[in-house]
TrEMBL record:
Extent of the signal sequence: 1-28
Protein's recorded name: Amino acid ABC transporter substrate-binding protein
InterPro entries tied to this protein: Bact_solute-bind_prot3, Solute-binding_3/MltF_N
Record keywords: Signal, Transport
Family designation: Belongs to the bacterial solute-binding protein 3 family.
SUPFAM superfamilies: Periplasmic binding protein-like II
Residues of the Solute-binding protein family 3/N-terminal domain: 40-273
UniProt key word Methyltransferase: no
Source organism of the structure: Enterovirga aerilata
Amino acid sequence: MTSKFATLALGLAVGLAGVGLGASGASAQATLNNVKQKGFLQCGANTGLAGFGVPDAQGNWTGFDVDYCRAIAAAIFGDPTKVRFTPLAAKDRFTALQSGEVDVLIRNTTVTMSRDTTLGLDFPAVNYYDGQGFMVRKKLGVASAKELNGASVCTQQGTTTELNLADYFRGNNMKYEVVAFATSDETFKAYDTGRCDAFTTDASGLYAERLRASAPDDHIVLPEIISKEPLGPGVRQGDPQWADLVRWTHNALLIAEELGVTKANVDQMLKSDNPEVKRLLGVEGSFGESIGLTKDWVVRMVKGVGNYGEIFERNVGEGSRLKIKRGLNALWNKGGLQFAAPIR
């Protein structure tokens, strides 16, 4: 038999659930509405990392992460230039996102459990699979990270890089001296001027920073990868629609590459009989509308920046200055880890 107290408790629970759903519904569109009202996307970016996010002398930004910001802007506004970039040091990036200074953080940031569960942030996708490595001068005569016992190592404060470094040397019973700096620029300059024997960061960053060395050919990247560094965009918790928009931006860029939809042929592909292409490009279904956008959101995005493969190759791939192989970032059907959930 149900008591009046149980009935009252049930009523309260239903009422609170309704309040919760209402609050969720009210907040679900907060960021997207704010971005539309401003007329631009505010994107948290690197202070300057070749291939990923760097401004030129005129303030024009380019890079892999930059193109992801432009993709979101194109999906929302149909214009990839409707984005402004806030350069953020590693120690400031999460605070800037938490405070609302930026709408999304796309800045070679490693997704970890503590970051995902304790900072009030969500990481909707992994857009680049990376791992930490080491760079040394060729004249040091070192061919493996296992030979760095007693070395001084330059690294950046407040990063997973610093923590991984400690784990690696402790795990291999080696001694080292850490030389840490607040910014990536300070860290690499210290290494380049000889203040430490080795420089450590994500492998992608090693190839990028080597380009800035006073004598790039004097340095080598050691073969060891000592960590998993899944890099991805970050958003604030409590806004599921915005998280969905960022997640499906990534998925759509991957699916576009998989289906052969490119910046050059996207208009022609609108006539395709392939049902997957039809759903991707909004010819069938209302998938864009489910995340607060128009049906042609992917068309606008691919026209603006291309598909995932085009973004990768242009900025960091073997045809770029960095000359990084796709590796783990190849599509799932090409031996990589990039695997998008389907649009259907």
